[in-house]
């Protein structure tokens, strides 16, 4: 009994000791929790400030701005030095590192000393938190490709026209890039395509000494800079999407070779940004090609077959149409002059911006059409077939599943350009077949661009194929935009349309942005610009 009583007394004293000791142990733990939370909040704020400083400075890496000063301005604006609070003042230190090698990089690191309060009872007066962020910026080379077909003259539902909206947002897109560092160029297309900027003579060779190609003076304030050329653009005519992409590819190669010669290397980001509101309806042709003439034996044409080295080439484009301007096409309008081959000195790039139907003239030169049966090549009775290749050498046949991927947006009377009849070159008077050829042409040109198919033909280019990304914007407010084609052109990662894959993982992957109205169109250009700037934390 005495022993039991003794143990009961010991247990009581243990409870007393525990009660006395508990605050001693809990206070540091509570202090640690409170002070730790404060440090976490400060570290989160510091991380956001550092991220903002890196991204903001990254956008200016290709300018003459002092990156260190800019980064510190962003940092201090978002995390004020000496910022006061209940716990005292935070002491901020920062370090900015800029690399201007192959990829321009800015790294912003910062640390802050956070005063502690509860943990001072164990002689811990402060803690240091830190954060680091990195942004990269590569100089860009961009070819903007604009559809100015007749459907672009329609109302945007907001008191203006689609073409007026496009001009405004295309100018804004251009102005987001840096004069003197980035390189920009412009191609516009209606029935045929023409280089809108730079305004150098056409054609120009793809060589280190050739003229043309995107340049870095695109908004220098001159009357024919890219911003002013875009302002002149008027709409009318067909949709020569394939030819426009072919010219854009040529222009990119010109600038690439020029920069390669000047710098010994070319590290720019290459991109084509295509805007359209419709479906291809025009095919640039070389009808009497020596190895693949499409002229019928009964045509009467004196130059039914050209020489091996073109002497009397029968170049031109064939346009398809229908009552509403969209497929299925019911008529072919004949052979017309390619704007890129117009030799009229008065027909400058600026003139073509304001005259979208200026290319609807008789074929030039006229000599190759000598003795042919019909004037103006309508209804194409001189042809024995649809050519296998376009004027630039790109196939007019389907690329894989090709036009089976076609999917039309906002057209209740049409879901695809494909009606179940496969492509055939043997019916040259069929507008439907020429429509498929137009679709195939754009598809095949884009495939060649993404793989830089002409790399082997560029003498002196030893740096490897160019990596060219295609971005597409489809305006659906008019009805008739083919999102299947535009996803395929951009090689959207993982895209699948009508049960067919349209993605190739061996080629650069772009993005497709769909816009149904004026506001969405503005956002589309912003999305594309952000993607091209390639800012990464």
SSE order and pairing:
Blueprint: H1 2-58, H2 67-78, E1 84-85, E2 88-89, E3 91-100, E4 104-115, E5 126-137, E6 140-147, H3 162-175, E7 183-189, E8 193-197, H4 226-231, H5 241-263, E9 269-276, E10 282-286, E11 315-321, E12 331-336, H6 349-354, E13 408-409, H7 431-450, E14 468-475, E15 481-482, H8 483-490, E16 496-497, E17 500-501, E18 512-515, H9 518-533
Parallel strand pairs: 6-7, 6-9, 9-14, 14-18
Antiparallel strand pairs: 1-2, 3-4, 4-5, 7-8, 10-11, 11-12, 13-15, 16-17
Helix pairs in contact: 1-2, 3-9, 5-7, 7-8
* Number of separate strands: 18
Number of helices: 9
Order of helices and strands: HHEEEEEEHEEHHEEEEHEHEEHEEEH
Structural class, by secondary structure, is alpha/beta
Distance between the termini: 75 Å
**Domain unit count:** 2
CA-based gyration radius: 32 Å
| Uncertain parts | none
Task: Sum up the overall morphology in one term.
Answer: elongated
Average pLDDT for all residues: 85
Q: What is the topology, as strand order, of the major beta sheet? A: 8-7-6-9-14-18
Q: Outline the biggest β-sheet.
A: 6 strands, mixed
How helix-rich are the residues, as a percent range? Answer: 25-40%
As a percent range, the share of strand residues is: 15-25%
Notes on the structure:
With 537 residues, this protein is α/β, with parallel strands linked by helices. The chain has two domains: 2-136, no CATH class; 140-533. It contains nine helices and 18 strands. The strands form six sheets. The protein has a six-stranded mixed sheet with strand order 8-7-6-9-14-18, sandwiched between helices. A three-stranded antiparallel sheet has the order 3-4-5, covered by helices on one side. It has a three-stranded antiparallel sheet with strand order 10-11-12. Strand 16 (496-497) and strand 17 (500-501) form a beta hairpin. Helix 3 (162-175) packs parallel to helix 9 (518-533), helix 5 (241-263) runs parallel beside helix 7 (431-450) and helix 7 packs parallel to helix 8. The longest helix is centred in the N-terminal third of the chain and has 57 residues, at 2-58. The protein is elongated, with a radius of gyration of 32 Å. The model has no long low-confidence stretch (mean pLDDT 85).
């Amino acid at each position: 009994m005495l022993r039991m009583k003794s143990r009961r007394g010991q247990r009581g004293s243990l409870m007393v000791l525990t009660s006395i000791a508990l605050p001693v142990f809990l206070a540091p733990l509570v202090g640690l929790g409170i002070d730790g939370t404060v440090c976490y909040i400060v570290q989160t704020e510091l991380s956001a400030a550092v991220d903002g400083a890196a991204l903001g400075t990254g956008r200016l890496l290709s300018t003459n701005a002092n990156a260190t000063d800019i980064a510190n301005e962003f940092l201090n604006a978002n995390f004020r030095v000496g910022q006061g609070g209940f716990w005292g003042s935070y002491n901020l230190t920062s370090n900015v590192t800029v690399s201007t090698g192959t990829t321009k990089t800015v790294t912003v690191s910062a640390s802050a000393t956070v005063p502690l309060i509860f943990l001072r009872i164990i002689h811990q007066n402060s803690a240091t938190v830190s954060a680091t962020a990195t942004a990269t910026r590569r100089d860009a080379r961009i070819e903007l490709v604009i559809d100015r077909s007749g459907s672009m003259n329609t109302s945007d539902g907001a008191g203006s026209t689609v073409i007026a909206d496009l001009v405004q947002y295309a100018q804004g897109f251009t102005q987001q890039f840096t004069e003197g560092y980035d390189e920009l160029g412009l191609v516009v297309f209606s029935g045929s395509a023409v280089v809108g900027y730079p305004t150098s003579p056409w054609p120009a060779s793809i060589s280190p000494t050739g003229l043309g190609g995107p340049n870095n003076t695109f908004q220098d304030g001159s009357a024919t800079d890219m911003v002013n050329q875009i302002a002149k653009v008027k709409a009318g005519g067909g949709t020569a999407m394939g030819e426009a992409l072919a010219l854009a590819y040529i222009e990119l190669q010109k600038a690439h070779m020029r920069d390669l010669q000047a710098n010994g290397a070319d590290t720019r980001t290459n991109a084509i940004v295509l805007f359209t509101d419709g479906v291809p309806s025009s095919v640039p042709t070389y009808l009497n090609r020596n190895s693949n003439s499409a002229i019928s034996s009964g045509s009467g044409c004196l130059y039914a077959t050209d020489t091996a080295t073109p002497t009397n080439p029968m170049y031109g484009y064939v346009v398809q149409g229908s009552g509403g301007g969209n497929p299925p096409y019911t008529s072919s309008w004949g052979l017309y002059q390619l704007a890129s081959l117009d030799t009229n000195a008065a027909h400058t790039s600026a003139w073509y911006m304001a005259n979208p139907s200026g290319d609807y003239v008789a074929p030039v030169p006229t000599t190759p059409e000598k003795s042919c049966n019909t004037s103006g090549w309508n209804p194409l009775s001189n042809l024995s077939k649809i050519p296998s290749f376009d004027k630039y050498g790109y196939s007019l046949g389907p690329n894989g599943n090709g036009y089976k991927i076609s999917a039309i947006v906002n057209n209740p009377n049409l879901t695809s350009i494909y009606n179940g009849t496969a492509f055939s070159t043997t019916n040259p008077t069929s507008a439907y077949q020429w429509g498929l050829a137009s679709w195939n042409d754009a598809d095949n040109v884009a495939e060649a661009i993404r793989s830089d198919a002409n790399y082997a033909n560029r003498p002196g280019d030893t740096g490897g194929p160019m990596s060219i990304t295609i971005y597409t914007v489809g305006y659906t407010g008019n009805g008739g935009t083919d999102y299947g084609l535009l996803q395929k052109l951009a090689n959207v990662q993982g895209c699948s349309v009508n049960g067919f894959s349209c993605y190739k993982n061996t080629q650069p992957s772009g993005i497709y942005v769909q816009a149904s109205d004026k506001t969405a169109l503005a956002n589309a250009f912003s999305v594309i610009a952000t993607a091209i700037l390639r800012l990464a934390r």
